[in-house]
Design goal:
Elements (H helix, E strand, L loop, with lengths): L2 H16 L4 E9 L6 H12 L8 E7 L4 E8 L3
Length: about 80
Amino acid sequence: MHEVGLCESLLDAVERRANGRKVLGVKFRVGEQHRVVDEALDQAFVLVAEGTVAEGAEVELEVVPGDELMLESIRVEAP
């Protein structure tokens, strides 16, 4: 399941952007060439985010043409 590897990379970006704040939601853009299965990505993110600021975050996936892999946005808890 290559989604785990993708989520590990995306989680690194999420944690840098969150800067220690609790993450409530994330939106990813993934190119169709990655052949990502939405449900598998959700499960993989739950697995890799366990114990991090992104644990429990809602995942939104936008599939786009090409081979893009991008963290589009995060939603964090208000201070």
